Amino acid sequence: MTRDVLPPLFGRTVQRVHCIGVGGMGLGPLAIFLARSGWTVTGEDDALSMEMRRQLQRGGVVIAPLPEACDLVVYSSAIAPAHAASAAAGARGIPRVRRGEMLAAVTAGRRLVAVCGSHGKTTTTAMLITVLRRAGVDAGYVLGGLFNGGAAPAQAGAADWVVAEIDESDGTIGQFAPELTVAVNLDWDHPDFYRSAGALETAFADLFQRTRGEVLVGGPTRNGAQEIDVGPQKRAWTFGLEQGADFEATLVADEGGRMTLRLSGKFQAGEATVRARGEFNARNATAALAAAQLMGVALTGDELADFPGVRRRQTVLSTVGGVTVMEDYAHHPAEIRALLASLRRPGGVLRVVFQPHRFSRTAQFKAEFADALAQADAVYLLDVYSAGEMPVAGGTSAEVADALHRAAPALAVHYAAGDGGWSQRLTAEVRSGDVVVFVGAGDIERRAREWLAARWDGLAAEISQGVSAATKVRREESLAPKTTMRVGGAARIYVEPATAEDLRATVAAARARGVRWLMLGRGSNLVVPDEGVDGVVISLAAAAWATFEARGDGRVWAGAGLRLKNLCGLAAKAGLTGFEFLEGVPGNLGGALRMNAGAMGGWTFDVVEAVTLMDADGTVRTLPKAEMEVGYRHCAELKNAVALGALLRPAAQVEADAVNRQLDVYRRKRQESQPREPSAGCIFKNPPGTSAGRLIDESGLKGARVGEAEVSAVHANFIVNRGGATAGDVLELVRHVRARVRRATGVELEPEVILFGQTWEETL
User: Can you give the residue ranges of the FAD-binding PCMH-type domain (predicted)?
Assistant: First the structure.
């Protein structure tokens, strides 16, 4: 909801805002909200992650130092007063405000849904945003984290409603007067600011008094709304899994990454499916669904069935070698207790790498941390992440280790000051079937990725030792330049085998480590996620795979790495007709065989006589077409095998000029009907009886954009890259198109392109 006229802020006209600490999960999304609402926003951070950089740039925030022209500086509470940029702003007389103060100011004129509480508010906020989007409510929002799948962490929105996390840690909670307040819990936290549990409860109670509409609080007893005076003319509602809550849910199933909740009390729907796991998330989902109903949403129960999740909230980083590696932002004892309880599985070994956050919190809750961590089978303690605090007596990781030894004498606990040796110890002890979870709110996400990188380095070295010198083996190879859409991240390991034996050795090494391997052709008909691909990506890009041999009997042998465009050109030169329909398909023969690619009324297997392939166990065999199961975009035999090449039979042998004339006809037809900008081809499958492009066009979506991704004005079933798109832009636009078409026509479009290394079910 970009505004033509910006409202004054803090009693002055503000057009240009600079954000210090913009890489943080609090200020970064707020900066995006400001930029999308019409302000000119710049920002800087001493430790800006690639993920947040991409989101900021997509959202219109310019990463730059404090500019000459600046009306207001917003800073994160983690920024010290002596920070160079903050001090420079002060010296120039530029007003400075905290993140919470700015959020309160820019949402004051809208119907604010304030999600607060000591823990769980990010997930609850993300779930509420998901419910509203599924219901077609274009609310603004400011999330305190990043969605899995790349959706923006903030939007201005066109509706009056705006949903935001309200942080109580620095006292700015006192600036807000919401329309609806959702308090997920009232557990004592932030002892550096609130010296007692009562002081924190008072801050929440004051917020409830200032709330203009309704209040929703976890209950129904202790820490519930029945104990809190919310003032006259408004109602306090309770939610929870406990019997007697106004909005009550019962967790009836929790398996396969999805939960089923039975809803009762004031809920309109009787059941809800939630893509999440654990009792803690069941409670968060109950809060989100109840809040949405209080906002006027008519619940159907499937609003959270495709909830993408939030990064660093039970996020699976890897399953390499049968070891499930996760990360979670939990840093309060109650969060950790709930997290580990949800991860316990019969027969599995649960290993926890824990980094306490803040000396004051560690000193106050070390016994509670020990009690929560005792649910693990092994604990690897890191030093406390100070978050700018000075050390506090009794607030060290050594104190937590001592408390753990007292609480659970039989538990395997590793701690060495300076974080010494935990990584090597974990590597030596971890086994297939284990769950390793990195827990904390500091820089532990970096430690997790460093530990995983070392494991990938080992596999890359093993592959290199087992192949010839001509084979290329690279770590973190960018895949975007290898695709037709030109978006996406890197492959953890990328291999270009020079020979079939090198291909066999690569696959064998990956299988021995329990690592998936994926074939990458010319990179058409797929989108690579921004976070890249956790696996071994294999490309038959070496020249030896691009052979074209005309046989004396009129047949042609073609290698799997041969580009279809080159196949058509070489066939035309030899006067062989029947391949012309493949001229404009931007792939190679291997990919075309795997998908039975088609165009202009023809299909790849129309001209195939036999395929030579390598099975996952390294066996090479040749199958005649008659023995293969092929169909629309499908070849069953190549689902888990690699095509090495194919014997092709042209339709006839004619003059080369005749073939070239037909190629020109198809080329002109394609140029007139398809966009020229980088794309992945048709994004959606055609529904029965109609075309996806027609439905998208009739829904008014031609030209719709997210960042630099755009629905083509030439063909509505193409999403094109206008020059600087990210995979996140593309995926968000896919979600937007599906939602708009569903609302306009009732048809749920299904993607045709491949989400490389992931599944659409994980993302949409």
Answer: 486-653
